[in-house]
Give the backbone structure.
Amino acid sequence: MSEQTVSHPSTLQLILRSNGFLIGAGLTALFVLAALVSFIWTPYDATQMSIADKLKTPSAAHWLGTDHFGRDMLSMIMVGARVSMAVAFVAVGVGILAGVPLGLYAASKRGGLIDEIIMRGNDLIFAFPSLLLAIMITAVFGPGAVNAIIAIGIFNIPVFARLSRGAALSLWQREYIMAAQVCGKSKALISLEHILPNITNLLIVQGTIQFSLGILAEAGLAYVGLGAQPPLPSWGRMLNDAQTLISIAPHLALVPGLTIVLTVLGLNLMGDGLRDLLDPKLRRVKS
C-alpha cells in the first residue's frame, strides 16, 4: 500500500476555490471603489437640484435616473457609499478598540469580580438596540453622522468584548500560556503577545460581519432621520424619500434598496469566505 500524502494548498489556491469569497470580495470592492472615486469625481453634483430633470428614468444621460429634485441617482449612490462605509468602518473600529481590550482583560481575570462587572456591563449595553441608543443620543446632541457612529460603535463594544473573552478563555489553559506565566510575564503582556495574535483571525471575520451590520444600522438610522443630514446623500434617506413616489417612480426605491442588499450580501459572503480561509483545518487536504 502506498502512503497517503497530505498537501497544504496555498492561500491563493484556497481563495480561487472559494466562490463565495470571490463574489463577496468583488461586490465589496465595487462599492468601496465607488466610495473612493466619489471623492474626486461623480457624474453630476450629488446635491445639485434640477427640477426640469426630476423623476427621469434610467437613460444614457442618467444611468440610474433622477430623484424628485432632479438629482442624479448614480452620483447620490456613490456619495452615499462614502457616508455609509465611513460610518460603519469607524463604528466597527470603536467596537474593536474598546471591546477587545475589555474582553482580554476580563479573560485574564477569569471568574473574578472584575470579569463579572465587565460582562454585566456588556449585557446592559445589549439591552439597548443601536436604534434606541441613537434616539437617546440624538435627544441630547441632535441627529447626525457622528452621533450615528457613536450609537453603532457603542453597540459593537460588547460584541467584540464577548468574542475576545470567549476565545481568550480557551487559550489561557494552553501549555505555552502557562509556560509564559512561569517565566514571570504579566497577564497584560501575555494577552498582548500570545492571546491577541491567536484570536486575530476571529476578530477579522467578526469585523467583516459587523461592518455589514453597521451599514444596515446606518441606513436604518438615516431612514428615520437620525443619520447623515441633508444635503449629504444617504442610502437610508433615499429610501425614505421614495416612499410616497414608489408607484410612479419605482427606481427611487429599487436603486438604493438593491445597493444596500448587494453591499451587505457582498460583505457577508466575504466574511463567510474569510472564516473558511482562515480556518487551519481547511488547509489540510488529502491529495
In short: The chain has one domain: 10-34+83-286. The radius of gyration is 23 Å. DSSP finds ten helices and two strands in the chain. Strands lie at 6-7, 285-286.
